[in-house]
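[Automated response] Your request has been received and processed.

Submitted sequence:
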Amino acid sequence: MSEKREFADVLSGVQRRIAEACARAGRSPDGVEIIAVTKTHGADVVEEAWRAGLRIVGENKVQEAAWKKPASVSGPQWHLIGHLQGNKVRHALEIFDFIHSVDSAKLADRINFIADEIGASPRVLLEVNVSGERSKSGMRPEDVAPTVAHIMESCPHITVEGLMTMAPFSENPEDARPYFRRLRELRDETEAALGVGLPRLSMGMSGDFEVAVEEGATWVRLGTILFGDRPKAKPARPSGDGDGAASGGLDSYSGEGPTVRVLD
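Generated structure:
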């Protein structure tokens, strides 16, 4: 088994690559932040990231963040970067500081309705399916400006701060460039058409973040390159008398922790 990498060294290498990408694009590295994606990792990884200087944690699932955030070091912002279902909106607003995955005006209306009920002021990004892949969530590029206009007019509790996308998987990072460039252009077009500022671009992951930075990313969502391969997990056996406790997966909102057993 290879020796565990020192996290500070790994992070320093990633930050150097971001700085080099910024230099190629004539940007300042200060304009790019890392979102530490801790999906399937424990609270110890959140603390490791925080102590190394990362200030944003990204989670794909509401129910995973529901137990992990209370168990983690206080301080980081928590961002929802995965798909948000309408029936999870209330819990998402209670847990997350930022939502990257608003993919329709209907979902925005739901978020605004719940935000009004609980006194929240959510900050969001619109998720855009730039590639048009049917397997990906996100709105069509042509729906971005109308959705921003709708939120501005009808969702007073929501602040839209930018756009998010995911490029199609490829072994070659350069294959992602047209999709990241298109998201930036779409942001610029929407700002000009509506007279609104959309400063955030969430794009780029472990395999293509340098290209994303060159194309204007302000947030890059990094997991594997920082923390290594994600732990494998399988459903744990139910405890007690088995009355309703055998659902497997994560204990959705109790904060009592995962009901999965992590395998080495």
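Summary generated for your ticket: DSSP finds nine helices and ten strands in the chain. Residues 234-264 have pLDDT under 50 and may be disordered.
If you did not submit this request, please reply to this message.
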